[in-house]
Amino acid sequence: MKSFKELGLNENIINGLNKQGIETPTEIQSLSISDILDGRDVIGEAHTGSGKTLAFLAPLFQKIDETKREMQVLILVPTHELVMQINNQIKLLSTNSEKAVTSLNIIGDVNIDKQIKKLKEIKPHIIVGTPGRVLDLMNKKKIASHQIKTIVIDEGDNLLDNTSSNFVKDIVKKTMRDRQLLIFSATISNKTLSTSKELMKDPIIYKNKQQVSLNPNIEHYYIEVDQREKVEVLRKLLSAVNPEKALVFVNKSFDINIVKDKLNYHNKSAFAMHNRLTKEQRQNALESFRNGKINILISSDMTARGLDIDNITHIINLDFPKNSEEYLHRAGRTARGNNCGTTISLVTQKEKGAIRIYERDFKIKIQKKNLSYGKLI
Hints:
The protein has 16 helices and 16 strands. The protein has helices at about 5, 10-20, 25-35, 50-65, 80-95, 110-120, 130-140, 155-160, 165-175, 190-200, 230-240, 255-265, 280-290, 300-305, 325-330, 355-360; strands at about 40-45, 75, 105, 125-130, 150-155, 180-185, 205, 220-225, 245-250, 270, 295-300, 315, 340-345, 365-370, 370, 375. By secondary structure, it is α/β, with parallel strands linked by helices. The strands form 3 sheets. It has a 7-stranded parallel beta sheet with strand order 3-4-2-5-6-1-7, sandwiched between helices. It has a 7-stranded parallel beta sheet with strand order 10-11-9-12-13-8-14, sandwiched between helices. Strand 12, helix 15 (about 325-330) and strand 13 form a beta-alpha-beta unit. One of its GO terms (cellular component) is ribosome.
């Protein structure tokens, strides 16, 4: 595998990476950095924890002309949390590489006039934002779309495969034809690939060729329950396993606040993540979860996008994942590094068939468990 220097990164950027403890490129970094430096359009499939954020940030940092106080890079992501995480990585790389790259977060649920004022004051080199608000500001002529040299669409499988796709397409169409477009995602469906190609110029495509796998340090269990009993079983399960840090996933069959209220009523320290929270509420909740003041976080797959939290001991699927992708994304949030973790799914009779599919896809065993006398057996 080539070194960062052989891939074309300069000494300042390499030093910036080294200061973060990053000395050798990951697979997605070694595949994509040179092409990004060369200005090629790239579609990159890379799983969580693969270093995909730095796969595009490092070469783009090198390409940015920090002497020009104008926007040069636009990064589009689906959630507020991912906006914050990428912006934090930008600040870290800017400090460590001693390159004065400025950035600004653009998200919904924030006063748009304040954002317009900051755009004028900071004149950021990079904007990291959610598509809806970015498009609003473009339509108001507050973001100079003709200045954008590169657009990054992160979590492309999400942004190009739902209602956000029209926003993204409109944003891309407002930029110059010679701009560079980069699309990264944990998984790339055929639909996402087709949409991506419509927006790009002869893209280079890096599909993950490795067998998708889950950390062998994860134990996988399921409990068979009736749909109407799931919340009560969840309460008993949490009492039985007493998790240090649990992430509970729901789809749409439950009101997330009702689940939270029931758990809190029974003295469980739980918080519900949803799109109606303010930016401050989200940040406070995540900080409380990280430092242990809250040990149960309830979320949908959408609101969990971009959450980067270490030491999650338990993943609990109150609603069973709809497909293998979802199971992978959820279970992969525990047992990071050399840690161990547990994934427990509450499964109805109708959902049981999917267990065998996930066992086959990931070469795992999902063991049946029961709750008896306050214990998981």
